[in-house]
Amino acid sequence: MFAPGAKPSFAWRHGLPGSSPDGYVSVLRISTDEGVEGVAIAPRPGSAPIMADLVERVFLKEFIGADPLQRELLWHRMWELDRVYEFPINILGIIDTALWDLAGRYYNAPTWEVLGGYRKEIEACASTSTFSTVEEFIDVATQCVELGYPALKVHAWGDARKDADLCQKLRDHLGPEYPLMYDGSAGFDMADAVYVGDALYEADYLWYEEPMREFNITAYKWLAERVRVPLNVGETSDGSFMNTADFISSGAATFVRTSTEIRGGFTGAMRIAHLADAYRLRAEPHGNTIYARHLCMAIPNCTYYESLVTSNPVVREAGINEKGIVMAPRGPGVGLPLGPHYPQELEPYVVDLAESVQK
């Protein structure tokens, strides 16, 4: 079914579209003959019609009759199907994500606990959208500190000189001890990526995230040889843990990104985390989603939960306390409502996916 976005619009770097409050996401709901259900969201723009088409053409015939507790088998089946259908990156893990939600409801435990469970709380990093000026970024940073956020990640303009200047001014304003990170949102070529990387090293930033598009791992290897700031890589690259392995073997990674939405569901996200851990690297869950909260509680080698800050005045995300701590989700499964929950005016456009898998 389609569900409307509820958050105010916000901006990313120059050249990237911002959010829209009237955008739609797609929701996949899976049920079993025992009455247990699971739900997952594909949040990327335009996912709803793609999801409806794939359910009707592919998923119904492939997964009705399957055992929903055989998540590993079904995860591999999705990858086999991807060989033919080339699923969008945000669709590839959606069956898996819904099945992990279903498993939590089946075992009456939160999904992070079913995944293994490592912690029950973690610090939340304030992660900005793109604000207009250096002065506004400094104002937002000040508010984040006052609200208790123990660290800050910056999404700036995608202009190497301006971004480097901003990052140094934030360091000067917040002092030498406050953890800072920077996300380039794939805005640079090699020359500009090196320029910003040098500035981040001088300003003692914890990590430098996705400065270039992630198609060419050799380019990241060369960047790692040219800058000293630690790189955080592999956020939007296809192939889940398989090409995360290439980022790691190239020597480009100190941190890797992991997520359910674009890294192959919970199964893919956990494989990335365990792979990184084998090399004593950190795997940082991406985004301010309920899925990321579960991953943070299940993964031993991560640093922060990413809490998106999109407004000025800053509003601290619900569920984060005055010390900047987010607690583990309670209750069975992921914790999203099973639905259907959608405005009445969308009734003609709803695709009910509740019978996608029968145990």
Task: Describe what is shown at a glance.
The protein is α/β, with parallel strands linked by helices and 359 residues long. The chain has helices at residues 47-63, 71-85, 94-107, 111-114, 134-146, 160-174, 190-202, 217-226, 241-249, 265-278, 290-298, and strands at residues 2-4, 24-31, 37-42, 121-128, 152-155, 180-183, 207-209, 231-233, 255-258, 282-285, 305-309, 325-327. β4 (121-128), α5 and β5 form a beta-alpha-beta unit.
List keywords for this structure.
359 residues; 9-stranded mixed sheet; TIM Barrel; globular; disordered N terminus; Enolase-like, domain 1; 2 domains; alpha/beta; 15% strand; 12 strands
Please describe what this structure looks like.
By secondary structure, the protein is of the alpha/beta class. The protein has two domains: 2-108 and 336-349, Enolase-like, domain 1; 113-327, Enolase-like C-terminal domain (TIM Barrel, Alpha-Beta Barrel). It is built from eleven helices and twelve strands. The chain has helices spanning 47-63, 71-85, 94-107, 111-114, 134-146, 160-174, 190-202, 217-226, 241-249, 265-278, 290-298; strands spanning 2-4, 24-31, 37-42, 121-128, 152-155, 180-183, 207-209, 231-233, 255-258, 282-285, 305-309, 325-327. Strands 4, 5, 6, 7, 8, 9, 10, 11 and 12 form a nine-stranded mixed beta sheet that branches. It has a three-stranded antiparallel beta sheet with strand order 1-2-3. Helix 5 runs parallel beside helix 6 (160-174). The radius of gyration is 20 Å and the shape is globular. The two termini are 22 Å apart. Residues 1-6 and 340-359 have low confidence and may be disordered.
